[in-house]
């Protein structure tokens, strides 16, 4: 009996898939876009505000596979325009990566000194000086933008499900349409490494994932989340001294911050994304 179906290339195949990735011009979104394209996806639409960054990512994949679409996820008008542009190029989308995000303002109290934590007046002054608009902007992109991105692309996700063949006994049915939302380990951290706004937004994203997975269950659209740790990206480069090769070896980060004592590598992120995409059923 042939064992070809057990090969990793089949278990985690994305051949012929049509995907949309927000925040696809840099960081984790760019990694996912290039990985999908190289491994046989037929179309990968990448959304983001900066056209130059989108085109740069597209140029690194097989010609014509990665398609840049300029979009601001905090604007319904921009999402509508992006949806219309994509719908003109494909009748369906099988997987939507909701990945756009920003760090937000640095809202970390001063580090404890030899005499203990900084005075409460100092903590209050530092945190209260941040405009509410900066806090709200983080939520607008990371939470509200994520939610409205999902809503915007539901028709194309539903269209993908309508293309699925009827179930046959003894034959594994292709996976249903899927949404994969990027959260962060920051959602679970008691001490914010960068800012409270970012951590709060990612905790909200975790709830959004659970709520949407339940809401979409009757429509057979799977909703899953990934919560990456520290990876080198445009957003996190300050933690790496600007060196993209730093951090991936054990011992480069304190264990109390990262138990593995190293950052994530791009191939581990690709593996997580492919593994989720390969799940046959469930939310």
Characterization of the model:
- Strands 3-2-1-4-5-6 form a six-stranded parallel beta sheet, sandwiched between helices.
- The chain has nine helices and six strands, in the order H-E-H-E-H-E-H-E-H-H-H-E-H-E-H.
- The chain has a single domain (12-229, 264-278), classed as NAD(P)-binding Rossmann-like Domain (Rossmann fold), CATH 3.40.50.
- With 283 residues, the chain is an alpha/beta fold.
- Strand 5 (178-182), helix 8 and strand 6 (222-226) form a beta-alpha-beta unit.
- The chain has helices at 8-11, 27-38, 51-59, 76-87, 120-128, 132-152, 154-162, 196-215, 266-278, and strands at 18-22, 43-48, 66-70, 95-98, 178-182, 222-226.
- The chain is elongated.
Quick structural gist:
This protein is an alpha/beta fold. 39% of the residues lie in helices and 11% in strands.
Structural class: alpha/beta
Report the portion of residues in β strands.
Answer: 5-15%
Query: At the third CATH level, what is the topology name?
Result: Rossmann fold
Catalogue the unreliable spans. Answer: 278-283
Protein name: Short-chain dehydrogenase/reductase SAT3
Family: Belongs to the short-chain dehydrogenases/reductases (SDR) family.
Keywords: NADP, Oxidoreductase
GO molecular function, one term: oxidoreductase activity
Keywords:
283 residues; alpha/beta; Rossmann fold; 39% helix; disordered C terminus
Task: Reconstruct the topology from this structure.
Elements: H1 8-11, E1 18-22, H2 27-38, E2 43-48, H3 51-59, E3 66-70, H4 76-87, E4 95-98, H5 120-128, H6 132-152, H7 154-162, E5 178-182, H8 196-215, E6 222-226, H9 266-278
Parallel strand pairs: 1-2, 1-4, 2-3, 4-5, 5-6
Helix pairs in contact: 2-9, 6-8
């Amino acid at each position: 009996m042939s064992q070809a179906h057990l090969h990793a290339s089949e278990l985690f195949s994305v051949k012929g898939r049509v995907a949309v990735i927000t925040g696809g011009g840099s960081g984790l979104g760019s990694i996912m876009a290039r990985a999908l394209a190289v491994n046989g996806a037929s179309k990968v639409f990448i959304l983001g505000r900066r056209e130059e960054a989108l085109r740069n990512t597209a140029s690194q994949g097989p010609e014509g596979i990665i398609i840049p679409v300029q979009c601001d996820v905090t604007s319904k008008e921009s999402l509508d325009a992006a949806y219309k542009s994509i719908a003109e190029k494909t009748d369906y989308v099988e997987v939507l990566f909701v990945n756009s995000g920003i760090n937000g303002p640095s809202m970390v109290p001063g580090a404890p000194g030899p005499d203990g934590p900084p005075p409460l007046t100092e903590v209050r002054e530092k945190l209260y000086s941040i405009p509410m608009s900066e806090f709200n902007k983080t939520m607008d992109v990371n939470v509200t933008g994520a939610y409205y991105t999902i809503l915007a692309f539901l028709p194309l996700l539903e269209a993908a499900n309508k293309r699925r063949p009827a179930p046959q006994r003894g034959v594994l049915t292709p996976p249903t349409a899927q949404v994969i939302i990027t959260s962060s380990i920051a959602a679970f951290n008691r001490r914010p490494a960068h800012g409270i706004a970012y951590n709060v937004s990612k905790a909200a994203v975790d709830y959004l994932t659970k709520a949407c997975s339940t809401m979409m269950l009757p429509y057979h659209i799977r909703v899953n989340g990934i919560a990456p740790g520290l990876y080198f990206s445009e957003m996190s480069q300050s933690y790496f001294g600007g060196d993209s090769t730093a951090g991936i070896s054990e011992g480069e980060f304190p264990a109390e911050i990262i138990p593995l004592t190293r950052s994530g590598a791009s191939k581990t992120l690709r593996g997580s994304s492919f593994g989720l995409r390969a799940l046959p059923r469930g939310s």
